[in-house]
Amino acid sequence: MIHGFHAVLARLRRAPESIRELYVDASRDDARARDLLKLAADAGLRPHLVDHARLERLCPGRRHQGVVAIGEAALPAMTLDELLDGLGKPATLLLLDGVTDPRNLGACLRVADGAGAAAVIAPKDHACTLTDVAVQTASGAAESVPYIMVTNLARAMDALGDAGFWMLGTADEADHSLYEETLTGSVAWVLGAEGKGLRRLTRERCDALVSIPMLGQVSSLNVSVAAGVVLYETLRQRRKAGAGAA
């Protein structure tokens, strides 16, 4: 089940063949709804125009915005090897260690898309899958940013290091800050769950640990906010150095 304009539009643009049924609130006659209906028609889909009550039964308690699609649970998954084969240089990746909340995952995908990260990578254990809540929170980014789940995150980090990525983790106790680190090459940022931080094996495989300056009373940031800080600083430095976006 895919719901909400951002998520449904993104799936229509990227993989319309994966959508089996499309339901749209018949009472909506705004530009946004008309654009979605045209895109669906161009893809050969015949949307069902239904009342609000039908949509509520399909997505009870969800903010569907008057549009719900039923289709394949997820797009074909990309492997780490496939990602590395197709990457240009320099590139940015976001690795999540122990992030299990679907809203945090969705927000991380959204910020990764905005900052030009090539993919988000997480372990199959101790991580959130692409639930409908994560897809909704991502506002379309779940369709544009590959979410790669690997069997062993530590081994995946070894492979990324061999491919030339500088592995950076965040930790409150690090001896230097994010803003003292050179981020113009290929970078893989590794972030842990709020409170727990990075696991030992993950931490040991980082080339360096950096802190995010915290000047107020709270000791840490939500993982998606931290992802935004580090990814956009990477983008800023890369553009300043003339290396281009990820």
Number of domains: 2
The CATH class of the largest domain is identified as: Alpha Beta
Largest sheet: 6 strands, parallel
> What structural class should be given to the helix and strand makeup?
alpha/beta
- Looking at the structure, the CATH topology of the largest domain is Alpha/beta knot
- Portion in strands: 15-25%
Q: What's the total helix number? A: 10
User: What low-confidence regions span 5 or more consecutive residues with pLDDT below 50?
Assistant: none
What does the overall shape look like?
A: elongated
The CATH architecture category of the largest domain equals: 3-Layer(aba) Sandwich
Mean pLDDT across all residues, rounded? 89
Quote the distance from N terminus to C terminus.
31 Å
Task: Give the CATH H-level superfamily of the largest domain.
Answer: SPOUT methyltransferase, trefoil knot domain
Count the beta strands.
10
Give the proportion of residues in helices: 25-40%
Q: What is the rounded Rg?
A: 20 Å
Q: What's the order of the H and E elements?
A: EHEHEHEHEHEHHEHEEHEH
Reading side by side through the largest sheet, how are the strands ordered?
Answer: 7-6-5-9-8-10
